[in-house]
# Entry
Amino acid sequence: GSIQLNPLIPEEVLYEKSHFEPIGQTWKAHHENFARFIYQYRAQDVFEIGGGTGLLGTIYKSINQDCNWTLIEPTPMLSESADPEINVIKAFFDNSFEFDGNIDAVVHTHVLEHIFDDVDFLKKLKELLRRRGKLLITVPAYEFLWSGEDYVSNHVRRYTKKILNNKEPLKLDEMVDNSIRADNLKNKLSKYLTLY
# Structure
C-alpha cells in the first residue's frame, strides 16, 4: 500500500542524509555513457545537480580535462577517486540558490523524478543557462515500470517524451533511448535528454 502525505515532507528533511548508494557497475556504465553524451556538446562550464560521489564529473573530466565542473549536492560524499578539481557546493538547488559563474550545460542524472514541483525546478534551471546552453539529463522512463523501488527511492514520477514535451518552459530538442546492460529491465531504460 501507499499513503499520501499532506503537506509533503520538506526536501531538507527528506534528504538530510545522502540519497545515493555505493555506485555499482550498472551506474558506472550509465555515467560513462552519459559523460560521452555530454561530450558531444563540448560543454566547458558544466553545472551538475545532485552529483553525490562526483563520479560523473570525474568521468567527464577524464574525457575533457579543460572543463570546469561544479557540483551542487546537499550531502556530498565525494569518492577518494573523485577529480580534485571538481568544485563542490554543499547546498540544495532551490529558489534561494544563486550562482554567478558561467554555465553552458546543466546536467543531472536521475534527479528530476525526486522533485515535487518539477516545472518550477526546470524554470530555475533555465535561468542558469546561457542563451544557447543545454540541459542534459537522465530520468527513469515509463510509468508502467513503476515499482516498489520507486517508492523506496522517493520518486514522485517517471517520464516519457510526451510528459517532458508538455513541461514549460522547456522545449524538447532531442531524446535518445540508451539501454545499458543490466540484470534489471528498469535499469536498462534510461532517457538521455537535451532540453533548452
Confidence is low (pLDDT under 50) at residues 178-196. The two ends are 38 Å apart (CA to CA). DSSP finds seven helices and seven strands in the chain. Strands lie at 45-49, 68-73, 87-90, 105-109, 134-140, 172-177, 190-195.
